[in-house]
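4.2 Preliminary Data

To establish feasibility before requesting continued support, the project team ran the inverse folding procedure on a target of 386 residues. The structure was first converted into the token representation described in Section 3, and no sequence information of any kind was made available to the design step. The complete token record follows.
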């Protein structure tokens, strides 16, 4: 059953239990791209509402992203842009209370933050070997901050397609000196790792965020470790591990399948004790995905935003850009000489970044901080300025 029809059948019973958002100006002055999130008590309503995850004209209804436990009260979370909400209400006047709630309060995403990439590895896909020496890595981290990065994401294990795992001791030797020195200078540092031991050591050295490309699935201790440390946690989707993920990735609906995985892992993290406000979800562009999968996820990023958590977009210099421009053939990209260099994909990276901003991304992971920051600010203003 569609969103409007199902809501119409139950609208008279809907009673706002809480408004999620911040006080705002009257609805006419609200930014067209702003989102409203309104929570309703679902007790006594149609059971099918609890299972509904529908997309219709940018209008979503979902149960609470943090999990529900019957018969305890559960919530319906409505997320909509103003034009979409108006269109639905115009066709279904019984839904006027929803628009009235929007007029009272609305939620608009803050300007996305920039995460600068610092790979202290010899074999990363774009800049492997450039920042292996700690002093060189530290200097580059300082440059990323000078260029406008809010976060520095330090990684000591390449996760490019075909990469092999790195022993924990070796990963620690690569990242800890860099993390410690950057953190001592007051910079916000993220540790890019799949290992709970590396994550713990990095946070103890001053990191404030764990960026786990396995979504908390590789190391069973990761979610408990993040909860214990009280740091931010990025959970990313990947179909398979780096060594094999691009061999033959398949999906029926990549957006739905990625969303289902991220929803499950977010619920597991919250159950382990991670505060929901500290969670960030990442669809994992280029990780176990072909060109068509990546494009679908970028186009429909707003559906992942509707899960109720911050979303990270990592699009910078990815191979799908070379595939789109024709500089790199998808069927050949893992063998033979490259037709393009990842560092030459700035234009495509910025184009994809603007789409991610439009989709509601909260965090943008990039190599080229200064131009990415400029593009993000312009894209955000175009999407959100009244």
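Position-by-position output of the design step:
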């Amino acid at each position: 059953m569609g969103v409007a029809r199902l809501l119409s059948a139950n609208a008279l019973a809907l009673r706002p239990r809480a408004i999620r958002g911040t006080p705002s100006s009257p609805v006419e002055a609200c930014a067209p791209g702003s989102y409203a999130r309104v929570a309703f008590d679902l007790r006594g309503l149609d059971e099918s509402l609890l299972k509904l995850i529908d997309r219709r004209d940018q209008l979503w209804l979902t149960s609470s992203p943090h999990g529900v436990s019957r018969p305890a009260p559960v919530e319906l979370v409505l997320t909509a842009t103003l034009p979409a909400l108006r269109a639905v209400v115009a066709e279904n006047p019984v839904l006027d209370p929803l628009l009235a709630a929007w007029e009272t309060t609305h939620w608009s995403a803050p300007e996305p933050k920039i995460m600068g990439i610092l790979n202290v590895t010899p074999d990363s896909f774009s800049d492997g070997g450039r920042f292996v020496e700690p002093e060189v890595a530290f200097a580059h981290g300082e440059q990323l901050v000078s260029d406008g990065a809010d976060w520095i994401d330090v990684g000591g294990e390449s996760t490019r397609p075909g990469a092999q795992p790195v022993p924990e001791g070796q990963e620690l030797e690569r990242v800890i000196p860099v993390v410690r020195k950057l953190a001592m200078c007051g910079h916000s540092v993220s540790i890019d790792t799949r290992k709970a031991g590396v994550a713990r050591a990095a946070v103890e050295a001053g990191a404030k965020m764990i960026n786990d490309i396995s979504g908390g699935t590789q190391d069973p201790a990761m979610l408990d470790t993040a909860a214990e440390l009280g740091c931010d946690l990025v959970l990313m989707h990947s179909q398979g591990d780096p060594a094999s993920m691009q061999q033959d990735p398949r999906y029926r609906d990549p957006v739905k399948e990625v969303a289902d995985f991220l929803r499950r892992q977010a619920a597991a993290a919250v159950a382990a004790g991670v505060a929901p406000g500290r969670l960030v979800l990442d669809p994992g562009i280029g990780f176990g995905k072909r060109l068509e999968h990546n494009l679908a996820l970028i186009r429909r990023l707003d559906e992942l935003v509707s899960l109720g958590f911050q979303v990270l977009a990592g699009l910078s210099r990815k191979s799908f850009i070379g595939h789109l421009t024709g500089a790199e053939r998808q069927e050949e990209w893992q063998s033979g000489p490259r037709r393009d260099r990842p560092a030459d994909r700035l234009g495509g990276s910025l184009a994809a970044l603007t789409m991610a901003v439009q989709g509601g991304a909260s965090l943008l992971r990039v190599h080229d901080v200064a131009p990415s920051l400029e593009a993000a600010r312009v894209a955000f203003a175009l999407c959100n300025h009244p």
